[in-house]
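User: Sequence recovery, please. Input:
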């Protein structure tokens, strides 16, 4: 029985919000407490750098997750793989909340933390492609950008949820209590959230476009071979398109916590600013997706890339003021430009690949970029801050990424209006 597009969108959005909550919770905790809990013998910035190294490990696992989940998603369907990814992410996050720290287990605690982070990254690598595809392949051609942008809203939704929980704990607990046990609460809460998401995902139907393709085509032996043979240019486009988008998001929402902390700005100030900006980001992402249905994916994406490349030079001076409104403005405007890339991205990438290799194609293209972009962004930013004690090199770093994204998207073909069902056969 077919499921309505609104129910598909709701299931996808709730599931991606929970998975991003799990993933971003780790990033926020890495900036706030993991340096003290798992790397206490290092100076503050070095400890933060080490905690971000474990954070980056999750990104390294994402392409592998994308490859494995993409392979089976292109052979067996989207729905079942989405259930598996949600269970893996939830279990890993819950166990992080149960981990002994350095004080109890020594350096082995950091190794266990890294192993669970690998599981998180593997699960998220498979989640993203399936979530955007099951919506894209259910929706109609004329509104695909709008509908497919809702799973994208799960990223700020998850960040909103993670930051909100941390902000509440930071406001109601002393620093000592939060460091002693309070940090565990958001991770343990993941177990409840996953059960909700799992129940919803089990009630939706498989993608009709995939089912049609499954009946019309033989099962692909190795979808990755088809992707690299027929769609290698599209993979490069996806990698380039994600550079500025991915780097900017982690600078604006994760690294900013470390940057503000280093500038002696109160934790609650920056967390509340991220909270406000993420709420606006959540609401506006579908608007950018809808705009891409009217004027095309590329124009919206290009404006977002150019905008963030310029805005980042105003971003850090605004944060340096220490004023809540200035920090909130800096993050909000940055995330609006990010949303102009992230909103159309789901439909844009889905329209690049054929159905029986689409899960693999979008996952590999997106997750390979995550290694050089999202994984390294906080590490590079912390290293630059430590070396130069200035935000200018960090801004220049994102500026270069924005130029590369502009080139990738400008050279791509416009995909708006393509019927995914007509792309069951390889070009």
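Assistant: Recovered sequence (427 residues):
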């Amino acid at each position: 029985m077919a499921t309505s597009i609104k129910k598909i969108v709701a299931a996808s959005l709730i599931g991606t919000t929970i998975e991003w909550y799990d993933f971003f919770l780790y990033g926020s905790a890495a900036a706030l407490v993991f340096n003290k809990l798992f790397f206490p013998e290092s100076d503050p910035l070095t400890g933060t750098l080490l905690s971000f190294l474990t954070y980056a490990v999750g990104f390294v696992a994402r392409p592998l997750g994308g490859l494995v989940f993409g392979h089976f998603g292109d052979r067996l369907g989207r729905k079942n793989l989405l259930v598996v990814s949600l269970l893996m992410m939830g279990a890993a996050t819950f166990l992080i909340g149960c981990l002994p720290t350095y004080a109890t287990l020594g350096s082995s605690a950091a190794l266990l933390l890294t192993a669970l982070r690998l599981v998180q990254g593997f699960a998220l690598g498979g989640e993203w492609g399936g979530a955007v595809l099951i919506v894209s392949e259910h929706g109609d051609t004329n509104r695909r950008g709008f509908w497919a942008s809702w799973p994208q809203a799960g990223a700020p939704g998850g960040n909103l949820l993670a930051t909100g929980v941390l902000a509440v704990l930071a406001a109601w607990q002393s620093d000592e209590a939060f460091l002693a046990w309070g940090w565990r609460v958001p991770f343990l809460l993941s177990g409840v959230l996953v059960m909700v998401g799992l129940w919803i995902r089990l009630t939706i139907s498989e993608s009709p476009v995939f089912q049609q393709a499954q009946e019309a085509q033989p099962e692909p032996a190795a979808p990755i071979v088809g992707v690299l043979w027929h769609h290698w240019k599209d993979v490069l486009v996806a990698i380039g398109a994600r550079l500025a988008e991915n780097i900017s998001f982690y600078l604006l929402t994760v690294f900013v916590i470390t940057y503000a902390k280093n500038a002696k700005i109160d934790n609650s100030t920056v967390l509340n600013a991220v909270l406000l900006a993420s709420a606006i980001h959540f609401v506006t992402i579908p608007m950018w997706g809808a705009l891409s249905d009217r004027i095309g994916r590329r124009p919206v994406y290009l404006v977002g890339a150019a905008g963030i490349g310029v805005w980042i030079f105003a971003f850090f001076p605004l944060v340096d003021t220490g004023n809540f409104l200035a920090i909130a403005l800096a993050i909000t405007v940055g995330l609006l430009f990010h949303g102009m890339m992230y909103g159309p991205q789901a439909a844009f990438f889905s329209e690049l690949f054929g159905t029986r290799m689409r899960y693999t194609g979008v996952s590999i293209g997106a997750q390979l970029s995550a290694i050089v972009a999202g994984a390294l962004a906080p590490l590079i930013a912390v290293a630059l801050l430590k070396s130069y004690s200035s935000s200018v090199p960090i801004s220049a770093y994102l500026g270069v990424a924005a130029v590369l994204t502009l080139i990738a998207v400008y050279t791509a073909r416009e995909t708006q209006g393509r019927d995914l069902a007509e792309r069951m056969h390889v070009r």
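The chain has a mean pLDDT of 85.
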